[in-house]
């Protein structure tokens, strides 16, 4: 009684101080804990809900004259408030929910996804918010939930556009939303095994087996475990093992293939119905999985296509359910298909890939870009098939993450167990088995080519692939959760799920989600010789055991990866770190020709490449050059040169006897004095960062000179054609430290998106001037520049172009290494591809044709409204971003740049270019061009060359060889 009273008081307390307000994560945690202890969980009371809108007490059912009505619980006030204020929905009762509100289109289907995540949390946390409330009799009526589910899907599936855009999400939701009486038993097996391993650590090896390589033999393994350990286990654990055994026995019962035509009776007269009948006739008794799985995969893909052609929502629902049964067959039977030779393994990879697209894990158009049916017998052809299959595995994982990561991140803030949901989804997919088969094929190729990864002796080493060559020695930090709150240290090696957007200097990096090959993070790593690799989800989990160890990490020029403990390093590897980094390896920012006396705003048309580092940074100088070369592809613009910044820095700081410039130089002089006194480098750096923060805040409040403001007003009117405050613009930081011969500086300083008002533009100018003194920018400069204090920001001011999609062109094949090829990466909206988004990436071959390296998987993108700021839009993935004409326009642009840029700039530069561009209504706009800087030292390192094998791609492979 006392406990109940305390729970009630807690709920009253929480509702009192958060009434009508958005709760923080700690307050939500307290609510969840209170629901767990409450015998009614998140529910208040049970009522009858009648068809005439009336609500009656449990013992007063709806009269026959107004219809039967439904009975279920109502929500506590705190649950209702949580939905209104936080858009969070715990313990959802479907019969209580409006269909459109549940579909929740405006919030990217958040409510539906929360329903799925809620079910997962209940399975891994003993009911979660319903820990006691799951026994609250009458709260939820299963028959009413199923009836609602059928009604919901008939409503949802009547919209063909919904199906095209959200096929994966809709199909996944069918596993969780009751509509036919089925349970998601595969997920139940994983969650029950997790609960057991949490209670009995000796079960962990079995749990890993069940999660990673599930098959029917797991039933015997669990039984054997219980027989061997029952005396050491509590009665509760023994009971849970019995429950797991029952669930597995039910799951591994053979799917009744013969019953499929009855379950799809609404389409039997159509071609897909005839295909289902033929499949049932031919394969209902099939025991050879080498025949059963290919036939099932072909039908699964046919059903996906037929669902889109079908018009009846009820028929679509039947086909969707049949599709889930076929996926279940493949998931259960694949472990029993053990190929005898390479030829059969290629078949297995191909058909699992086909089944995977049929189940919606990649889009139909993406499948058309993959060639898994090749049976070429050269090492090169075999490698290409493996690369395509590996891409499909990566794209499948990214599909799951794109759909669910956002809601998982929100829930993880107050419920850490939510983070396991993505992993659970991937492990319950055909992509799990596809990945295992691809790994087997990769091992064969590695053996034949000698391109072998050597990473700590962990499993599935073919999941690693190098992105940027280099080597490093440092502490390994494995981050399985979100990287955004991690404070990185420059001498450590990091393994992330995804790269953080604002990565500070690190010794080495490996990521599951690499973002894209031409993001600022990737370009910096490539430029500076930081070893950088991609890896699979299970590789990250396997590396967790080495978190905190000092390791050697190397990526060769061909992309093979080495990681070993410091104690296992060879003498040659130790010698790489025998000498400290020499100061002359750093780069000096040239300032001899800088023209700081120029303090007038310039028209973009007045500058060209020869002004880079003198009047302004390379962004403005090169864009001015492009304006001359491609006048119709470059907007008008203003350039605020270095001299205007410098003249403002000569003003006295408030409440100080020194100028801003004198204050800045004193920081670096004092730091040098501290070093000569033997003070620890970290202490010196902390001093500099503290003083730079003071300077940065002072610059943000620096008074602007009247003459400059007058020039700004006139520049907007005369050059941009609109008054200051009436046209949205971008303010791009453009320093003299960018695009040096050996240092790119990509993405280190500030770009302000789409500002309109005079106040925001003026504040933005100050913010851009202050941005070189941020911690991230300073640390990169300090590590790689000899004179980091001599950094001058200019500002490029250009009108906003509300592009439909934007991205990056590199006039070189990064993947192939061929200088005649092109690499492009595009995302929807503005600012695409440069900030690490999962972008649509291609290699364009000089001989014609292209290869999709990765599809776009960014759920949100930016549009630029005329009122300023950014507007978030929701993306779907059924269509590619770029069309054929866009690609041809990019090819033509690249050819023109290669031909005319050296002539126009009178330079002997023969390297590749990094170009930022976008399309608005299919018109190409250019925003930036810079040299594509690679780290020649890493590329030419004797050690890296030594670990890079010479591969004979023409070597013939006997596809009949036994495996």
Classify the fold: give the CATH topology of the largest domain.
Dna Ligase, domain 1
What portion of residues is helical?
40-55%
Specify the structural class. alpha+beta
Mean pLDDT, rounded to whole units? 88
Number of strands: 24
Shape: globular
Reading side by side through the largest sheet, how are the strands ordered?
4-11-10-6-7-8-9-5
- Which superfamily, in CATH terms, is the homologous superfamily of the largest domain? ATP-grasp fold, A domain
Report the total helices: 33
Tally the structural domains.
7
End-to-end separation: 66 Å
Strand content: 5-15%
Q: Mind summarizing the main beta sheet?
A: 8 strands, mixed
CATH architectural label of the largest domain: 2-Layer Sandwich
Radius of gyration using CA atoms only: 31 Å
Poorly predicted segments: 1-18, 580-584
Name of the CATH first level of the largest domain: Alpha Beta
Characterization of this structure:
It catalyses: pyruvate + ATP + H2O = phosphoenolpyruvate + AMP + phosphate + 2 H(+). Residues 1-20 form the signal peptide. Pathway: Carbohydrate biosynthesis; gluconeogenesis. β21 (860-863) and β22 (871-874) form a beta hairpin. It contains 33 helices and 24 strands.
């Amino acid at each position: 009684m006392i406990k109940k009273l305390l729970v009630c008081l807690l709920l009253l307390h929480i509702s009192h101080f958060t009434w009508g307000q958005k709760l923080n994560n700690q307050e939500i945690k307290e609510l969840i804990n209170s629901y767990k202890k409450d015998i009614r969980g998140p529910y208040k009371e049970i009522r009858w809900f009648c068809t005439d809108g009336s609500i009656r007490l449990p013992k007063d059912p709806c009269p026959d004259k107004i219809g039967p009505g439904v009975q279920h619980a109502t929500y506590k006030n705190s649950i209702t408030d949580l939905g209104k204020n936080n858009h969070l929905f715990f313990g959802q009762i479907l019969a209580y929910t409006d269909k459109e509100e549940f579909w929740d289109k405006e919030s990217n289907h958040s409510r539906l996804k929360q329903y799925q995540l809620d079910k997962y949390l209940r399975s891994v946390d003993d009911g979660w918010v319903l820990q006691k409330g799951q026994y609250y009799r009458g709260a939820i009526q299963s028959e009413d939930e199923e009836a609602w589910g059928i009604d919901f899907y008939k409503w949802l599936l009547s919209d063909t556009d919904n199906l095209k855009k959200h096929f994966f999400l809709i199909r996944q939701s069918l596993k969780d939303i009751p509509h036919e009486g089925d349970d998601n038993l595969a997920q139940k097996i994983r969650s029950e095994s997790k609960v057991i391993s949490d209670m009995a650590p000796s079960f962990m090896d079995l749990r890993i087996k069940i999660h990673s390589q599930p098959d029917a033999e797991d039933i015997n393994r669990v039984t054997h475990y219980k027989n061997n350990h029952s005396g050491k286990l509590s009665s509760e654990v023994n009971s849970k093992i019995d429950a797991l055994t029952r669930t597995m026995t039910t799951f591994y019962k053979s799917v009744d293939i013969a019953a499929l035509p009855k379950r799809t009776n609404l389409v039997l007269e159509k071609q897909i119905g005839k295909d289902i009948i033929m499949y049932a006739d031919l394969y209902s008794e099939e025991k050879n999985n080498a025949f059963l799985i290919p036939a099932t995969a072909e039908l699964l893909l046919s059903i996906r296509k037929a669902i889109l052609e079908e018009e009846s929502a009820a028929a679509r629902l039947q086909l969707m359910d049949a599709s889930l049964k076929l996926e279940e067959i493949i998931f259960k039977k694949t472990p029993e298909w053990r190929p005898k030779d390479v030829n059969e393994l290629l078949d297995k990879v191909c058909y699992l890939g086909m089944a995977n697209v049929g189940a919606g894990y990649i889009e139909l158009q993406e499948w058309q870009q993959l060639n898994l049916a090749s049976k070429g017998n050269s090492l090169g052809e075999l490698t290409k098939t493996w690369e395509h299959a590996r891409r499909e595995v990566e794209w499948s994982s990214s599909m799951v993450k794109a759909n669910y990561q956002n809601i998982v991140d929100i829930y993880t803030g107050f419920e850490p167990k939510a983070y396991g949901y993505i992993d659970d989804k991937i492990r319950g997919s055909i992509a799990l088995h596809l990945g295992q088969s691809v790994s087997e094929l990769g091992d064969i190729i590695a053996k034949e080519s000698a391109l072998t990864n050597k990473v700590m002796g962990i499993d599935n080493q073919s999941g690693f692939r190098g992105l940027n060559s280099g080597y490093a020695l440092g502490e390994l930090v494995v981050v399985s959760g979100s990287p955004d709150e991690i404070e990185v240290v420059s001498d450590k090696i990091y393994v992330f799920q995804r790269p953080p957007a604002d990565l500070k200097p690190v010794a080495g990096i490996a990521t599951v989600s690499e973002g894209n090959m031409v993001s600022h993070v990737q370009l910096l790593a490539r430029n500076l010789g930081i070893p950088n690799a991609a890896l699979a989800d299970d590789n990250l989990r396997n590396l967790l055991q080495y978190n905190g160890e000092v390791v050697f990490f190397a990526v060769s020029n061909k992309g093979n990866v080495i990681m070993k403990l410091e104690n296992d390093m060879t003498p040659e590897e130790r010698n790489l770190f025998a000498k400290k980094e020499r100061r002359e390896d750093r780069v000096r920012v040239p300032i001899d020709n800088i023209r700081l006396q120029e303090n007038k705003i310039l028209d973009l048309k007045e500058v060209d490449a020869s002004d880079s580092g003198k009047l302004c940074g390379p962004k403005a100088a090169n864009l001015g050059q492009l304006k001359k070369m491609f006048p119709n592809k470059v907007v008008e613009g203003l350039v605020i040169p270095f001299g205007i910044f410098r003249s403002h820095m000569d003003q006295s700081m408030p409440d100080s006897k020194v100028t801003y410039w004198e204050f800045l130089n004193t920081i670096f002089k004092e730091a040098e004095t501290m070093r000569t006194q033997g003070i620890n480098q970290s202490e010196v750096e902390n001093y500099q960062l503290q003083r730079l923060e003071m300077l940065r805040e002072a610059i943000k409040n620096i008074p602007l000179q009247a003459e400059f403001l007058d020039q700004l007003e006139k520049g907007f009117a005369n050059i941009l054609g609109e008054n200051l405050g009436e046209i949205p613009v971008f303010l791009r930081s453009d320093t003299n430290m960018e695009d040096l011969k050996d240092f790119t500086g990509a993405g280190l300083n500030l770009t302000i998106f789409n500002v309109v008002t005079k106040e925001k533009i003026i504040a933005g100018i100050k913010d851009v001037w202050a941005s070189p003194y941020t911690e991230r920018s300073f640390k990169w400069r300090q590590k790689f520049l000899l004179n980091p204090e001599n950094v001058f920001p200019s500002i490029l001011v250009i009108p906003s172009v509300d592009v439909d999609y934007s991205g990056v062109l590199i006039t070189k094949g990064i993947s192939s290494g061929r200088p005649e090829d092109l690499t492009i990466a595009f995302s929807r909206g503005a600012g695409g591809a440069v900030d690490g988004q999962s972008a649509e990436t291609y290699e364009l071959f000089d001989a014609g044709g292209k290869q999709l390296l990765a599809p776009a998987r960014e759920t949100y993108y930016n549009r630029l409204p005329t009122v300023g700021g950014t507007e978030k839009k929701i993306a779907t993935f059924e269509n590619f971003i770029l069309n054929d004409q866009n690609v041809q326009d990019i090819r033509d642009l690249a050819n023109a740049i290669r031909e005319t840029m050296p002539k126009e700039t009178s330079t002997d530069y023969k390297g590749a270019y990094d170009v930022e561009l976008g399309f608005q209504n299919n018109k190409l706009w250019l925003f930036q061009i810079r040299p594509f800087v690679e780290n020649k030292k890493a590329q030419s390192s004797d050690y890296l060359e030594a670990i890079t094998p010479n591969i004979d791609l023409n070597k013939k492979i006997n596809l009949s060889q036994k495996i």
